[in-house]
Specification:
The complex is a heterotrimer of chains A (274), B (157) and C (768). Chain A is α+β, with helices and mostly antiparallel strands. Chain A has helices at 14-24, 37-42, 78-83, 85-90, 92-98, 104-109, 112-118, 124-131, 149-152, 220-227, 232-235, 253-270, and strands spanning 7-10, 28-31, 50-53, 63-66, 69-73, 135-140, 143-148, 153-155, 158-159, 166-173, 179-184, 194-201, 204-210, 217-218. In chain A, strands 4-5-10-6-7 form a five-stranded antiparallel β-sheet. A four-stranded antiparallel β-sheet of chain A has the order 11-12-13-14, sandwiched between helices. In chain A, helix 5 runs antiparallel to helix 8 (124-131). In chain A, 61% of the residues are buried. The longest helix of chain C has 27 residues, at 534-560. Chain C starts with 12 loop residues before the first helix and ends with a helix. The chains are: A alpha+beta (274), B alpha+beta (157), C alpha+beta (768).
């Protein structure tokens, strides 16, 4: 309940945040909404010696229509994503998924950047961003770089972010058509046992999976089958291809695989994919 | 480190450890014990307060993060002794028993009602998904919130 | 017009809604020391050494204590009849026996410093073999207490038959038990371990001043805590003052005391400073105490026409590492074994065993939900076997309404009841035929989402061990009344309820009645609140005291007014006594109280009920089961509950709602899970899926009132009934949704995984 002592710094800009991370080294962590990090710290599963608070960088909270993509500031809160008109119109999957994260209180604080940077395959937003061909804009001591979502999530709680880097923006493909998010939970506030996000992106269907491996995954076998003309119900049977689900009290590996197939079919139906 | 937070309309300033959670700032530093701690995984919502008008779990916010912001707790909800409609509705509908989850539940409900005009039974239940109660079975809580839906003074606090 | 029976809003609420209650952790103490416990991370181990050097050097630390420091006589046993070789030490002496077991205590100037230092205590554990499951424990290959030589937790005395528990001969299994039964159905059922999860965890605080100990406790029984403290510290009870301030739920788990709490006054006495402790939720999940945890073998036999002839239940009770009330649950199960049915032949055996897990304690229903879950499941299995509607089978076997008082084969005497009417009301309220029709339609159509209808007709025992409960009523010169009650409400609304009783007798308004509880200096004696006993014991005591105050006042008024007592009447609407026919000659309550002299105008009562009462009901649950994903959605909960004469329907409904929620939770969602090494996998409210609003519908509850003859209020208890009816109704509904697919049983909680497996298993069997 009580975290280990730490020092607190507040960054006035992304560059300052990077400088502070560089200065304090591996034991420093960024905090934005704090809803990935603080729960770990309260259980003393994480004990960074320095927290760099970027939560006030309001300049990094935005949703912008940029031609083919929608650019979202890393510090945009889930609640804003849920209600933003531009996002609801241009990338409705992301808005819908943001509305399913945690509970209303969590959504008032959590940020998309924080969620993506945390890299938990059971989180909702990483899969949605992956489905929408997300591009992560990262700033670090060497300047700015862009990493595609497919290359960003390396493993369980492992991302391409270096210890002295910060996510500043997430770019997603415009995808104003059909979309659906199937989140299988026993209680509404729970993490997804399995989740499937579907969106129509540039004329084809994108399918991404939550909690079917150490990272969010694109169900490429499903996507390929659909592209080849297979009906949704048939393509959905391939949802668990190349996945590596875990086993826990909620589900065995087989059950997760089964759920992935069923939920993919339902998500495709929900998104209007024939 | 020093933090300055406006709480229930009054300025406050205290010297705290960086690791001081907002809920402990309120309870221990300001003596506002209405807000309760019920868990350690941000699951139960007993600690819910309004931060700049929005419901948050004060156990998952550092006091430092709330520096310069405005917080409303259960103690600050009624004005000049007049109960907020949600407080009144909770009483009318027996939406509390032991009272431990109640301050957080009320604040969560206030925020929910501030953000939505039309609420169904299912909307209310989903809107309170982050607040656990062991005594009431939620039935009367939902009833109380529904009875106020659509009648709130407009806008967030 | 009596106020009794009305939906009077709670007097308690304004405070809770505006400034919040004052719970133990809210109590302000200056200069208090804070306790934090070091707990075992392993389930069974020898403690080889405890190194507190680093902890002692940590800022703010005053001391680190281990078992050797605690100079107290051994703790009293957790419950009667437990094996005395299985007593619990204050802190681990040589062995730890469950994850969370106490090893050391840190005392520091602040909570943060205590928590920081607790992490620095280094304990060297030598692992011992772990036994987690009761079926393994009963084999006695791994024994938790070598001195006991067994894991059997109880030693039942030969002479005494506790709670109607019979002696050795009942443990013999009669091979001819089901002779004459055309049909016999058997099923192993797990009534799984659950966590009580009161929103307020445990907390305690102590101050010693001028030789007197003042102790704040989050308890359901402050006078019990007082007695325990006096005994523990060798004090006279007059030197001990216990306060239960507002308590954030108990559900049975805060009925007794625990070493964590009792060591708080020990620290206060050692250091001459106030001391306080509050646990974390994780500690509470590990160590508050768990509920239920029975493995049941049910057997039911009868005719193909649906008559139940014989019912046998074997219970294996998991008691946890140190036997507590949980070890005794089978006795309560046995008392309610045959439920609402006329079953001529019964059999019952039970064993309670220790395991390397958190001790099992009383939890809402305490042994009776286990009884109804077993028999209601058995009745449904029987119904399926003979192809008869489960409502019809129940109706056939219900105890008839003219049979009361009815003594069951296990020796419980049900005071009053009308089970068939209750069943009829519930079926009508649910529109049972329409539900069956919808179920049939979906089956025909092969719908993915199938419908299940689950029934439970229950009877439960409240005030199971009637003791005497205290109540007093005093009228003050200002015309207000003051009630002292030995009950200790923690959400039940006694301040409102007892005020209503006084208002009804005296004509003093509810707002002008002060109800004092939870303070042993103010309330001379009391039992506390648990077992759904308060209204029918403490409420009746208040009723009697109020009646006596009216008598006294009448006497006094007759003297003052120089009239015959028979000619003096109380005008309740005015709160005034006057002479019949001469309203001007009168005296108000305040005037009488002023005239009453030094003794004041008061009366007290210690009421002992002549016996327990037996509320009953019918719960009907409609469940929608997604046959592709195994997800279960509860769409309707329809209940008819009868707890005798209802004092305040608002409060009664609240109790039913809460009980239903916990009942549904056990059937659908909640389970305490240990792995094979005794690690607790559900140690917080994220992993332990405590029921939230989104899993429950709004409930359709109806009241029936069949008064009890056992007390003048006609009142039975109601607090626990919800769990007793709802749990089996939900489980039956889930199975009912799938019987046409060959599923005969799904264990609780009926998780998607379990449902999917049940369906896959039957599919696999059919394919073979």
């Amino acid at each position: 309940m009580i975290p280990v002592t730490f020092d607190y710094e507040r960054a006035e800009s992304a560059d300052e945040a990077v400088a502070l991370l560089t200065e304090h080294g591996e034991d420093a962590k960024l905090i934005a909404g704090g809803h990935s990090l603080l729960p770990l710290m309260k259980l003393r599963l994480a004990s960074p010696s320095v927290l760099v608070d970027v939560g006030r960088l309001d300049g990094l909270s935005y949703v912008r229509d940029v031609g083919d993509t929608v650019s979202i500031g890393a510090l945009t809160r889930h609640h804003t994503l849920e209600t933003d008109e531009t996002l609801r119109r241009e990338a409705p999957l992301l808005a819908a998924v943001a509305g399913r994260v945690g509970d209303p209180q969590v959504r008032h604080r959590g940020t998309i950047g924080g969620s993506i940077a945390h890299g938990d395959p059971a989180s909702d937003l990483p899969a949605a961003v992956l489905a929408l061909d997300g591009q992560m804009v990262i700033v670090g001591p060497g300047g700015e770089r862009v990493v595609a979502a497919g290359d960003f999530f390396g493993g369980f709680l492992e991302t391409a972010l270096g210890p002295d880097e910060m996510l500043t923006e997430i770019r997603v493909a415009k995808s104003p058509g059909g979309h659906a998010y199937q989140k299988f939970v026993r209680r509404a506030q729970d993490w997804a046992m399995v989740g499937v996000a579907v969106a129509r992106v540039n004329g084809s269907s994108a399918v991404a999976l939550v909690n079917m491996g150490p990272t969010p995954l694109r169900a490429t076998a499903v996507e390929d089958a659909l592209a080849a003309g297979a009906p949704a119900a048939e393509a959905a049977q391939l949802a668990d291809r190349d996945t590596d689900p875990t086993e826990d009290a909620n589900a065995t590996r087989d059950f997760r695989r089964h759920l992935a197939r069923v939920l993919t079919r339902r998500a495709l139906e929900g998104a209007g994919v024939p | 480190m020093k933090v300055a937070i406006e709480v229930n309309g009054q300025p406050s300033e205290r010297d705290v450890e960086a690791r001081t959670l907002l809920v402990f700032y309120l309870r221990n530093h300001l003596g506002l014990t209405g807000t309760n701690v019920g868990c350690d995984t941000s699951s139960c919502g007993a600690c819910t307060v309004l931060l700049d008008g929005e419901s948050v779990k004060s156990c998952t916010v550092l006091a430092a993060q709330a520096d310069g912001c405005a917080v409303t707790t259960i103690e600050g909800l009624s004005t000049d002794g007049i109960l907020h409609p949600v407080q009144e509705a909770f009483r009318q509908h027996h939406a509390l028993q032991c009272g431990y989850c109640t301050p957080g539940m009320v604040m969560a409900a206030v925020s929910l009602l501030n953000e939505h005009d039309d609420l169904t039974d299912a909307d209310v239940r989903e809107g309170l998904e982050g607040n656990l109660c062991r005594c009431t079975g939620y039935h009367n809580i939902v009833k109380a919130v529904l009875s106020v839906a659509g009648q709130m003074p407009g806008g967030a606090r | 017009m009596s106020i009794l029976g009305n939906r009077v809003l709670r007097k308690e609420d304004p405070k809770f809604l505006t400034v919040g209650g004052t719970y133990v952790d809210d109590v302000r103490l200056t200069g208090a020391l804070h306790l934090a416990y070091v707990r075992s991370p392993v389930a069974h181990a020898r403690v080889r050494s405890i190194d507190a050097a680093e902890a002692l050097a940590s800022p703010g630390v005053v001391a680190v204590h281990t078992a050797a420091d605690v100079d107290l006589a051994p703790m009293p046993p957790g419950a009667p009849f437990v094996n005395m070789a299985m007593s619990r030490p204050w802190l681990a002496e040589t062995v730890v026996r469950f994850v969370g077991d106490l090893v050391a205590m840190v005392v520091a100037e602040s909570r943060e410093e205590a928590v920081d230092a607790a992490e620095l205590v280094v304990v060297d554990y030598e692992p011992l073999p772990v036994v987690v499951g009761p079926e393994e424990a009963v084999e006695d290959r791994i024994v938790l207490f070598p001195e006991a030589g067994t894991n059997l937790a109880l030693k039942l005395p030969d002479e005494i038959v506790p709670f109607g528990m019979a002696k050795a001969e009942e443990t013999e299994v009669d091979p001819n038990f089901f002779d004459g039964c055309e049909v016999v159905v058997r099923q192993r059922i797990v009534n799984q371990r659950v966590a009580p999860c009161p929103l307020e965890v445990r907390a305690a605080a102590s101050v010693v001043e001028d030789g007197r100990l003042t102790h704040w406790s989050a308890t359901q029984a402050p006078h019990g805590v007082k007695t325990t403290l006096a005994q523990t510290f060798g004090l006279d009870e007059s030197e001990v003052h216990v306060i239960a301030p507002d308590v954030g739920g108990g559900f049975g788990a805060k009925m007794g005391t625990c070493p964590e709490e009792l060591l708080v006054p020990w620290v206060a006495r050692q250091y001459g400073r106030p001391a306080r402790w509050v646990e974390t939720r994780m500690e509470s999940m590990m160590a508050l105490g768990h509920g239920r945890a029975q493995i049941q073998d049910v057997e039911i036999g009868g005719t193909r026409e649906g008559e139940i002839l014989a019912y046998r239940l074997a219970v294996l009770q998991d008691a946890g590492a140190y036997p507590n009330f949980g070890a005794l649950l089978p006795m309560m199960t046995r008392m309610m074994l045959t439920g609402v049915y006329e079953i001529p032949k019964f059999g019952f055996t039970s064993r309670s065993v220790v395991t390397n897990t958190n001790p099992v304690v009383a939890y809402r229903g305490a042994g009776r939900p286990e009884a109804s879950a077993a028999i209601e499941r058995a009745v449904d299995l029987f119904a399926t076997e003979i192809g008869m509607d489960p409502a019809q089978v129940r109706r056939r076997n219900l105890i008839k309404k003219d049979a009361f008082p009815y003594t069951t084969p296990t020796g419980s005497t049900y005071d009053s009841g009308d089970y068939e009417r209750c069943l009829d009301m519930a079926l009508a309220a649910a529109d049972y035929p329409a539900l069956r029709a919808e179920q049939a339609r979906r089956r025909q159509a092969g719908d993915v989402r199938q419908l299940g209808i689950g029934l439970a007709t229950y009877v439960e025992i409240t005030n199971g061990v009637p003791g005497s409960e205290f109540g007093s009523v005093e009228v003050r010169p200002d015309g207000t009344a003051r009630v002292l009650t030995g009950t200790s409400p923690h959400g039940q609304g006694h301040e409102t309820a007892w005020s209503m009783i006084v208002a009804d007798h005296l004509g003093i308004s509810v707002e002008d009645v002060e109800v004092v509880h939870g303070d042993t200096d103010l309330v001379p004696r009391g039992v506390g609140t648990f077992g759904s006993k308060s209204l029918q014991s403490g409420g009746v005591a208040v009723h009697e005291a109020a009646g006596r105050v009216v008598e006294k006042a009448t006497e006094l008024a007759s003297e003052l007014l120089e009239a015959n007592p028979d000619d003096v009447v109380l005008d309740k609407s005015a709160g005034r006594f006057h002479v019949v026919g001469n309203p001007t000659a009168g005296a108000t309550w305040g005037e009488l109280a002023s005239a009453a002299g030094d003794d004041g105008l008061s009366a007290e009562s210690d009421f002992t009920a002549p016996g327990p009462t037996f509320p009953f009901g019918t719960h009907l649950v409609v469940a929608e089961v997604d046959t592709e994903t195994g997800m279960v959605r509860i769409t309707r909960v329809v209940t008819v509950d009868d707890a005798g004469t209802i004092l305040n329907p608002l409060l009664a409904e609240g109790q039913i709602h809460g009980g239903i929620a916990q009942g549904v939770a056990q059937a659908l969602l909640e389970e305490v899970i240990y792995d094979d090494e005794g690690n607790l996998l559900t140690s917080n409210l994220a992993d332990y899926t405590m029921v939230s609003a989104t899993e429950l519908p709004s409930f359709e509850t109806t009241r029936m009132e069949t008064p009890t003859p056992l007390n003048p209020l006609g009142a039975k208890g109601i607090g626990e009934a919800g769990t007793i009816g709802a749990t089996p109704a939900v489980q039956n509904a889930v199975v009912d949704a799938l019987t046409h697919l060959g599923v005969r049983h799904v264990e609780m909680p009926t998780t998607p995984l379990r449902v999917w497996r049940a369906l896959s298993d039957t599919e696999a069997k059919e394919a073979q």
